[in-house]
Amino acid sequence: MKNIFFSATIVLLSIIGVSTLKAQALIDVETGAVFTGYNNVRIPGDKGTRFSLKDDLNPNTEFFYRVRLNYTIKSRHTLSLLYAPLEITSEGSVANDISFEGIVFPANTQLEGTYKFNSYRLTYRYDFVKKPRFDFGLGFTGKIRDAKIALSSDGLQSEKTNVGFVPIINFRLLWKVNDKLGLLLDGDALAAPQGRAEDVLIAATYKMSDNFNIRAGYRILEGGADNNEVYNFALIHYASFGVSYTFNSKMR
Fold it and tell me: Mean pLDDT, to the nearest integer, of 86-104?
């Protein structure tokens, strides 16, 4: 999975290297704390025991990071690569047996649950509106999810893994309150009969210089699927802080 992502990164850097257009490259790093809103699981989706990694077990507060590489051509066409790992562990016990992916975990035993949802994304976005105080763009994201839900206790362990491709809609809206301050709404989202996925950030931005920007805000990650293989819907809250640096250049 990482090899595919790194290959895409090399391709994007190659595009940057041969471009003859006025362009901007940007690197963005985001970090902060992650909190579980809900995380309901039943695996298999038609026969397993439904339980909550939030209400039945106690999730830990985790720290996260994301790294994004953007390349914008002629101020309106943006290509971006995102690496967004996420892993949350939960601990506790429940008063009933749990049947999870072919293993029965007895009641009142100490359990550890793991929820992993790593995301690799390639996005193209076009800014339809580009004004001094207002930017708005829409695009498409190809997301590869590397997901795992695992449950373990003394002597027992079971997990369900899934790697899949999801096409979703990308959007970005930036309102520049003044030359320094702004309000950003940015994300990927799509709903379909097979499930839904939303990853949306709302943040206040501050322009430190022509190249350096910081932001602070709230991110929500929500979605899941309901089928015979897996039932899982999760809501994750992020307290987010981000830093970005723009490399302005005119390639020759």
Answer: 97
